[in-house]
Amino acid sequence: MNEKISRRDLLKLSGAAVGGVTLAAAGAADAKWDPTDPPPGLTERNTLFRSLKPFRLGEPLAVDEMRVSFMGTSPLERKTQAATSVFVELGCGESFVFDAGMGCQVNYTAMQVPASKMRRVFLTHLHGDHTSDLTYMYCFGPQRDAKSPLYLWGPSKSWVPNPWGGGQHEDYDEPEYFDDGMNAFARNFREMNRWHSESQSFVGTRWAGGDAGAEAEGDGYDIVATELDWATGDKALPWSNNKRLDGNVAGYFPWYSDAQWVAYHDEDKGITISWFPAVHDRNGSVSYLLEWNGLSLIFAGDTKPNNFMVRALTDRDRPVDLLIHEMVLPAEVWTAAANGGQVGTLALMTSHAVQENSHTPEYALGYILSQAESAGRAPRLAVATHFQASDDTIAPAFDAVRTWYDGAFTIVTDLVVLNVSGSRILERRAVVSDYSQLPPPADPRVANGVFLPKYNDPRPDSPFYPLGLGPLEQFSPFLLGEVIDPCDYDPEGWSCEQGYAPYDPPPNPPGV
């Protein structure tokens, strides 16, 4: 371990090289900040990111390689950084999403990731900044090529006693313990999006079978959720709104394993995703370990520094290839940045409380890595994320970590791409368009077509036959009677020439 230095001296230091991946924090030396100086606005540059070589979309993935794309890397809303999401692709053709924070969907679209590649989502915890864009993925995936169920994994309920439970509060009648785990989330999420899913079910939302592959096991608006016990390593049978899928391990879920702490196991392709406890905000958060083809990564999610993580790194035959771990700015820095440069007592105490409740400081991440290094299990590359990354934050963070750890380390931002093989780890920045359209379908079953939509028009003389599309089947006569005739504004248009009328509209609601 290097000699300890004071925070004041630390924040005066310039950037340090990223060991093992030949990257430099060049240009960051002029962006350092001393807490006694006027506070920063946080620079609008990320020299580290700009120094990376480009990754071009469409690059094939080798069969023995793993690719990790960072689609969201910030704890707070920022134009340059969405909230947390990591996309993992394996050379065997499988892919997984870890967390789905606000704004990340834009990066998935920019990276041209088809919706069908985003159907297995592992949630570390149920905070909004790690789940918000799941709504978009779920709601609009079936309109694209995600016409099979959405699979979710996440923690069991917290079992934190509710201080307002048992009639102890005059305004709220709440239970002693909330049902706040993955299954409750999935059930309520399904119903929260009911208006949307019904409204979009006039087109096909489930793949049919054929030469291009077997029919989908369920509809694109079905959810299958697996609740992972954060304390015991047990898990519930998969829950689904589809009663045929609900708990039917033998029939539909070959990835299910009875082994403790194993969330996902594909024996044929050699993929195992396990979990272990994290310490974040309240009981319930988890971290994940993915292993495949001799490669491995840990995704910590949000967490305080903890020995579960140290043991996950050290109790192994060989080091993990990637450790993706959160890291937060010093409380003084984020307080100043978020309050127009003012570091008042209340704001600073609140920042310290949030850190104490939830997060890993820069020094702490260096310490965790030093523990792994002492055991001979330092990761091939340690990756800090969940961090507002710019020149004046990156350089001091490197130096804080370096007081404890000299191994391969980097700080990522959105659109960083890591290719991991047995011989190398290649870090690059994705080159994307600011005007990306939706990616083309990737599921080969697009060639088979889809099942008849839920709201359909079966008439052979319908202009939508044989697809059975029913675009007007959910409008009552009360509303349809006020629709402007398309022949009034476009007499030569398709709608005027077809003169389409609904097949079986619902009745007017009571009282109309």
Structure in words:
With 512 residues, the protein is α/β, with parallel strands linked by helices. It folds into two domains: 7-444, Ribonuclease Z/Hydroxyacylglutathione hydrolase-like (Metallo-beta-lactamase, Chain A), CATH 3.60.15.10; 464-512, no CATH class. The chain is built from 16 helices and 17 strands. It has helices spanning 7-10, 47-50, 104-110, 128-131, 134-140, 182-192, 194-199, 249-252, 307-314, 331-338, 345-358, 362-374, 391-402, 477-480, 486-489, 494-498, and strands at 53-56, 66-72, 85-90, 95-98, 120-122, 150-155, 223-228, 239-240, 262-266, 271-277, 286-292, 295-299, 322-326, 381-385, 409-411, 416-420, 425-431. Strands 1-17-16-2-3-4-5-6-7-8 form a ten-stranded mixed sheet. A seven-stranded mixed sheet has the order 9-10-11-12-13-14-15. Strand 10 and strand 11 form a beta hairpin. It is globular. Residues 1-33 and 35-40 have low confidence and may be disordered.
